[in-house]
Amino acid sequence: MSTLRGTPHPYGICVEPSNVKAGGHGCPFRFRCVGCDHFRTDPSYLPVLRAYLDTLLRDCEHLAAATELDDWARTEATHSEAEIKRIRTLIRRVETDLNGLTDDEREQIKEATRTLRKTRTVSLGMSDVRPPEADLRLERDT
Ligand code: SF4
User: Fold this and answer.
1) pLDDT at 105
2) pLDDT value of residue 108
3) What is the mean pLDDT of the chain?
4) Ligand 1 centre from 21 Cα, in Å?
5) What is the per-residue pLDDT across 63-86, written as a single tens digit (0 to 9) for each?
6) What is the 3-state secondary structure (H, E, C) of 80-111?
7) Is 21 in the pocket of ligand 1 (CB under 6 A)?
């Protein structure tokens, strides 16, 4: 059973102590959650993570096609490749965790996820997924 406690985030939780203490209003990193070691997610967030990835990709297409923006504005408004890659990786890792379960376990997770999405107060009991560490170091070196 997961023992992690944190403050809710749309697609996971934040366990950064000062932000948790501030009820989610004290992020020291401008809410760059998928690139932050304090972010955790689990299979119950998979639909939201997928929807978020779709939104980022749609935004990028829309921005690329927009003719009314200066280059600097387009660049600043465009989501980074690193963020998109990080979300894809998180989704893949959660899906990999799910694929390692039996059909019964997957069904239990599905049922728990339905409940969690209504209440967001219960842990699934699976290990939480953190952002990929190797990518974090690579990104910060550039
Ligand atoms: S960026 Fe990190 S510290 Fe800030 S809310 Fe997200 S997970 Fe928490």
Assistant:
1) 87
2) 86
3) 83
4) 12
5) 999 999 999 999 999 999 999 999
6) CHHHHHHHHHHHHHHHHHHHCCCHHHHHHHHH
7) no
* Statement: residue 45 has pLDDT above 60: yes
CB of 27 sitting under 6 A from ligand 1:
yes
| Strand 12-14 versus strand 7-9 pairing type | antiparallel
Quote the pLDDT of residue 140.
Answer: 35
Residue 45's Cβ-count burial label (10 Å; 0-12, 13-18, 19+) is buried
Task: Calculate how far, in angstroms, residue 27's C-alpha sits from the geometric centre of ligand 1.
Answer: 5
Q: Which of 103, 127, 102, 122 is nearest to 112 (CA)?
A: 122
Distance 67 CA to ligand 1 centre (A): 34
The pTM is what? 0.74
The span from the first CA to the last CA of the chain, in angstroms, equals 37
What is the 8-class DSSP label of residue 43?
G
Give yes or no for residue 84 CB within 6 A of ligand 1.
no
Tokens read off for 86: 């990080």
Q: What is the largest CA-CA distance in the chain?
A: 53
